[in-house]
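Assess this:
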Amino acid sequence: MSTSIAQNIEALCQEQGIDRDLVIEAIKEAVRAAAKKQFKGGEDIQVDWSSDTGLEISASKVVVDDVADPFTELSIDEARELGGEEVEIGDALLLPLPMEELGRIAAQT
């Protein structure tokens, strides 16, 4: 899938004379907006692009002792299960979000 997206981006840029980075940033912003509408929890949504892997969506959560907001914070125990024993309080972890849940409707609204 990512190869197809990368090829389409390249074709669009060549045909229309548009800067590749501009197109990628626009796509990332559109996906970020759709993800915020879909997940609605107030997560800090990050969208990354790689020509190898395509788009990746993740939520950034801060590691804390006591979780007050589960959408933006992660307990130290959960964080260490996910990120290893070297994770410390105050660190930020990027947790992958499922792209499959972003449907056409979320992107259109």
About this structure: The CA atoms of residues 2 and 54 lie 4 Å apart. The helical segments are 2-16, 20-39, 76-83, 104-108.
